[in-house]
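STRUCTURE REQUEST FORM
Protein name: Class I SAM-dependent methyltransferase
Source organism: Streptomyces triticagri
Requested output: structure tokens
Priority: standard
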Amino acid sequence: MAPRPTGPEVPPEVLAAFEAAKGFMPADEGLALHAAATEAAALGLPLLEVGTYCGRSTILLADAARTAGVSAVTVDHHRGSEEQQPGWEYHDPTVVDSEVGLMDTLPTFRRTLHLAGLEDHVIAVVGRSPAVARVWGGPLGLVFIDGGHTDEHATADYEGWVPHLAEGGLLVIHDVFPDPADGGQAPYRIHQRALKSGAFDEISVTNSLRVLRRTGSGI
Ligand SMILES: C[S@@+](CC[C@H](N)C(=O)[O-])C[C@H]1O[C@@H](n2cnc3c(N)ncnc32)[C@H](O)[C@@H]1O
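Status: completed
Returned output:
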């Protein structure tokens, strides 16, 4: 198994903002994400996240981006994934827009980022990930996939964004569960696809968070 990553210390106020934010990422995976983002940001290219939700993981990308003088770009339609809808396991009624009767995580995300003092380092794109990927025009230093967890969404995220990842850049995938008893298999399937493509080497494993380095041009 790949070794656990070590990165620079996360500033205490950034860690506090991460821990206070709504979201799904545990601290150990957050530290691994921050280490990967710090390493990738040294390429001088933007860091891209699919799946903003309320900004918990975005805070860590933003801090790494700030240090390196690059931008973190985060993409979400802000209407929630399947498992976050009313009646499902991860639903949070406090992020429903009562006027339109749909989830809207954008206001909470904006508040989170403002309170963390990181607004200037993040470009938030509101839209469907495949549509945004189609109009995206430049190379990326990091692609972090944490959007929809169905095969349809995870595959579209992989096929939409990985072609933009620069050689030497990092692909990070969240919620990779080799054992179906632990969780859905779509992120695991794109993780396996990346490894089988021959275009990636795995450089760290932290619970369900996997970090792979792009070593070739395929997907
Ligand atoms: C698991 S949450 C992201 C969690 C976040 N990274 C964190 O650390 O708290 C997944 C997010 O992906 C978004 N999402 C799902 N499918 C999407 C798609 N096709 N395009 C854009 N966003 C999508 C949902 O709206 C949801 O906010």
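Reviewer notes: The longest helix spans residues 27-41. The domain at 12-208 is CATH 3.40.50.150 (Rossmann fold).
Form closed.
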